Every structure is written in structure tokens, then in C-alpha cells.
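Check these lines:
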Amino acid sequence: MIFLQTAVYAHRGASAAFRENTVEAFRGAAAMGADWVELDVRRTADGGLAVHHDAHLADGRAIVETLATELPASLPSLASALEACAPLGVNVEIKNWPDDIDFDPEARIAESVARAIEGRVQPIIVSSFHAPTLERVRAIGPGVPTAQLTFLLKDPDRAIEAALAAGHVALHPHDGTVTPHLVELAHARGLALNVWTVDDPERIRELAEMGVDGIVTNVPDVALAALGRGGRRPSDSTKE
């Protein structure tokens, strides 16, 4: 069976084969045949946008306390990451959480992200766990597609209604909370469902059979094969 309706999102690029959130990982995802790339963005000390998952670099420096020009060469800006991902769609996850050192209650990063994606031809969706940050994105760029990221969903109906009320086009739930009932509820209300983060081929097929719209995975080649779409692995894939 071939699941054409289920998009494959390369989590931080092809992160099982390359160093995550790097130009190489994004290009590797494209070479493997992924439909989308998922990446993380944080703000630097001078207001730049750095593509990195954690709030701190490997050497212990906080990104928010580091100038963009002082970041490691392997760490791309959002602009260079988008270029590397083209023409794939990109899920830009904004990192702005109260427990992190770079948390900004005013969510000023939202304006920077909106400017960075303005005019881009490739499909882009902006997601975050922090609902007020997404609210700020929508206030600045009403036409920007947004998605609410969630962990445990104790009340799926409430989560879906909240996402719709906020103007989001999608809900991005953790795999452990996804059931056929959730998929049915979301689709009945016109909300897309993109699930994170799934590497097991059997579970990938199970989710596709439920009808989820997208699957975020560290192994896009494995996911594509599980969905009956082949999947191409670059011969020079190496994880740094």
C-alpha cells in the first residue's frame, strides 16, 4: 500500500544520518525524498535567529547571550536554513518556553521569524509549545499558517477547540497521544494533524492508516519506505 496523503517531515533534518539542524541535514532530507523539514529557532544576543534545539551550545554558552557572529560555523541562521531546505516545506518551531534561559514573555522572536519567512515561495508553517508566542506570530502575520505543539492531551476535544479558536491550521501532538478518535475529531473540525516524533516503521504505517496528515521522523528514508514511497539514502550520509 502507498500512503500518498501522509507527508514526511524530517525532524531537525535527516538527523539520524547527519548532525541535526545543519545545512547538511536539511540537504540530506531533500536527497532522501522528504516532503518537509522540521527545524528549531532561537534568538541570539543581537536579535539574530539561530537554528538550534537546545538553549545552550555544546560548549555551555547560552545562545541568547551569544552574538550571531560568534556562533559555531555549523549552526545556520534561519535564512540560510530555509535556503538549504528549498523547495521542501519547512516547519519552523519557535523555542520560547518559560523554563528556558532565553524565554521572552513579549515573544519578540515572533516578529523576527515573521520577517524571515516573508515572501518565501516554499510552504512554511510556524509551530511552538508556547501558545502566546504563536498568538504574537499571528498578530504580526495574520496569513502565516501556525500549529500548536502539544505533549499529553488529557482532553483532545478541548485541545482541538483551543487550536481552532487561536486560528491555527494544525495540531502537532506527541505520538503517544494520537488515536483514531483524535484524528477523526481534528479532521471533522478542519484541523490538520502532524505527529511527532516517530521512527518505528510499523507505527508509521499505523498512523498513516489512521489518516494523519504528517509524520515527523528522524529517519525520513525509513518513513518513506514504510509508506511505500521508497526513500533514497545519500551514499555519503554520515552523522558528525
In short: The longest strand covers residues 36-43.
